[in-house]
Amino acid sequence: CSSDLAADDARQCCEEVLRPACFREALAEMAAHRAAGRRVVLVSGGVDLVLAPLAESLGAELLAQRLVGEGDRLTGGYQTYEVLGDQAGDMRQAASKAAALARYAETTGIDLHASCAYGDSINDVPMLELVGTPIVVRPGRRLARIARARGWQVRRWGD
Fold first, then answer.
1. In sequence order, what DSSP letters do the residues of 65-115 get, joined into one string?
2. Is the model's pLDDT at 103 over the cut of 80?
């Protein structure tokens, strides 16, 4: 697959599918964070090529899997994504996602204790444990139980 064609498809997907699917409450909270001078970082197990247009449209930095390319072609494989040219961890494992965020924060000077993170999956718990203000979004039973036990904020966007 041509990387240029894939990038064009990703932009179209962002415009037609991803951006319209964003909860308006999420967009409002991101706008408030940006207005307060905070950095917004989208951390996802998805692939960078697909999520880059969304992150750009949200005014967010992006941590995601990196697709493997050879020349101007994508191979169909992916590998651990890069943070400022360094290997950050494998997003396929929740603990590694947290490790990748920790490494990114260290590399870029983000104070995680003064940061908030949003998560919607039980797999996000290790990442949420790293920040001063963990927020769960539309949690399932297990995540809701953990949030209650730890006193984490809960958002019910779109309900």
1. EEEEEETTEEEEEEEPPEETTEE---TTSHHHHHHHHHHHHHHHT--GGG-
2. yes
